[in-house]
Amino acid sequence: MKGKRIKVKNIKKVKELLRSMKKDNTVVKLIFLNFIKEGINFEKACRLCEIDQSTGYLWIRKWNRDGYKGIKGQGSER
């Protein structure tokens, strides 16, 4: 199997499920913050999480100021 590209089947379902969780998108916020921590380019991290750059900056500021409490349970801020 080495060298063979791995594919994710039914990616539309994955995206659908992620969108359905936006009412409390804390998971998306944590994924975004982890992308930034791992060195993924800010603009790319925003694109991958389907957020505006202004939202990305807001999430980072809230995390830095209040930690988990700052990003928890605030719903979608897109």
Describe the structure.
The chain is mainly alpha-helical and 78 residues long. The protein has a domain at 24-71. It is 60% helix and 0% strand. The protein is built from five helices and no strands. The protein has helices at residues 11-20, 26-37, 42-48, 53-66, 68-71. It starts with 10 loop residues before the first helix and ends in a 7-residue tail after the last helix. The model has no long low-confidence stretch (mean pLDDT 85).
In summary, what is this structure?
Helix content is 60%, strand content 0%. The protein has 78 residues and is mainly alpha-helical.
List the helices and strands and how they pair.
Blueprint: H1 11-20, H2 26-37, H3 42-48, H4 53-66, H5 68-71
